[in-house]
Amino acid sequence: MSQSLIIFRPSGLIEYQLNNKIYPFNEFISNIVNETQIDLDQNFTTQTISHKRFYCYNKEDIFVAIYFDAISTINSEKIRQTLVGIYKTFKKLEENEELEKLKSLVDLQFNNLIKLKTTESKETTPTPPTSALTTENTAPKKQPSMQKQLSSKKMRKWDNGGEMIEYTEGESLDYSTFKDSTSIPTNGKNEYKVNEESAFEKEDEFVLVRELNEILNESDDEEEEETKAPTGFFGRIGSYFGGAIDVDEVSKKFNDQLMSKNIAPSTSKLIIDKIKSRLSGKKVTMKIYKETLVDELTKVLTPNVSTDLLYEIKRNNTGRPYVISVVGVNGVGKSTNLAKLAYWFLQNNLNVLICACDTFRSGAVEQLKVHVNNLNNLNSELSNKSKIELFEKGYGSGDHVVQTAKSAIAYASENHYDVVLIDTAGRTHSNAKLMAPLKKFGDAANPNKIIMVGEALVGTDSVEQAINFNNAFGNRRNLDFFIISKVDTVGDLVGTMINMVMATKVPILFVGTGQTYTDIKRLSVKQVVSMLTK
Question: How many Cβ atoms sit within 10 Å of the Cβ of residue 511?
Fold first, then answer.
């Protein structure tokens, strides 16, 4: 069974082809030109020619066509969604001149559709009557309740998935004797914190699924903007004012809009003042005001430095591993996001050493051991050459943290690790006594990058958090990046991002979107701006 796909222009120029079978498309293209094909939907057509079923999606001057050599059992809407996704991918990567990446992302979508074709074919295969009868009459066995197995006194511990579970008194809780992270008891489980449907898939150093999702999500936003009437904030005030607007009155309303999205009052005022200054003395319509506002918010979130960590790490030829320190307030998810970073590096064939420098919080070292154990198992399944290990020297205070960091970097140099990820203790940003050790730690470890994990839930307090951590490392050193965690919990109330970036001029590297190792993605500035103006 064969199938093929091409992306072409009306001029006949083929931009991309998959499976190298172009000639069957000739007659179908002729039918497109003569408009004899069947229209399934707007811009979506189909036709059966010589026992082959063709489908085509076109928009502007791009055509994406696919055929199957037999009548497909796949719902035509699923085929349409795939072709639309391939079109969006091509437009995005052509615009950014990333055509090398095109093959990986198009092949991924095409292969997923073919897998669906195979799966649906299997599902249509008749099931023997005896099996059907057995299925109908056999009720699933109930698993014994975990609670009934536990004694009345329950305690908690970290399981191998990085979660707290209850356990009966008398079980071993102290894992500190397990120096090898792969020796941690797993309770017979093989459950790793990975979302299989959106897991990282590596080809030519690209995290394909994540990148594809970002492209499609961003494109969906654009399509909605084109096809829908104005809604939300601008729709409401646009219909109210009409034509030329009173900038001061609109600005007051928008100031309330920004603050409703968790943007701090002082930050909101600063943005509004910039807009009013830019529009001063001009006749302003709602369209001009919106364009100015979107442009201002886009400038705030657009990095003015490179965020390509992979490139920087791979060109590092100093003989010293690339050191990244992760800092932040208690409970924002530093260790979890550090593990997500580690998994991303492993996908790109980088050797990672995780250093346990949170030597204050009970269970912090054990938590990292669980993460490293999981990542080791995941990494072995990928069959790549990268490695990951935990470096720890137990718990302690004062100079113990500094010595642990120095020893970890030396160990990484000797054992050819590319990256050292240093976890640190969470600390209250308003407590000067707790913040003071960060400077000494920064001077001693001298990390290449310092990343602060901020929480999307925190709202206006994020301004003070960002400023205090940015200033904690002295006059010669600042934060390099933010990772904003728990973005999936706040809906469109994403003002924390604006607060932290405007307060420090530090860009956002990633946003955390869930609790699995793959739930980390690059910031879509366009999407965040859309949420703020929604």
Answer: 25
- Give CATH for domain 3-118: 3.30.450.60
- CATH topology classification for 309-524: Rossmann fold (3.40.50)
For every one of its 534 residues, what pLDDT tens digit does the chain have, with 9 covering 90 and above?
A: 567 888 888 777 888 888 766 677 877 777 776 666 677 777 888 888 877 888 899 888 888 988 887 656 677 888 888 899 899 888 877 766 666 677 788 888 888 887 776 555 454 444 443 333 233 333 444 444 434 333 344 444 444 444 444 444 444 443 344 444 433 344 444 444 444 443 333 433 334 565 666 666 665 544 444 444 444 544 444 444 446 788 888 899 889 989 999 999 999 999 999 999 999 888 888 888 989 999 999 999 998 888 889 899 989 988 999 999 999 999 899 999 999 999 999 988 899 999 999 888 888 999 999 999 999 988 887 666 789 999 999 988 778 899 999 999 999 999 999 999 999 988 889 888 889 999 999 999 999 999 999 999 888 889 999 999 999 998 889 999 999 999 988 888 899 999 999 999 999 999 998 888 988 888 889 889 988 987
Q: Going by DSSP bridges, is the β-strand pair 206-207/322-328 parallel, antiparallel, or unpaired?
A: unpaired
Q: Following CA atoms 479, 481, 486, 490 in sequence, which dihedral angle do they give, to the nearest 10 degrees? A: 100
Following CA atoms 58, 210, 97, 83 in sequence, which dihedral angle do they give, to the nearest 10 degrees?
-10
pTM > 0.85: yes or no: no
End-to-end CA distance of the chain: 47
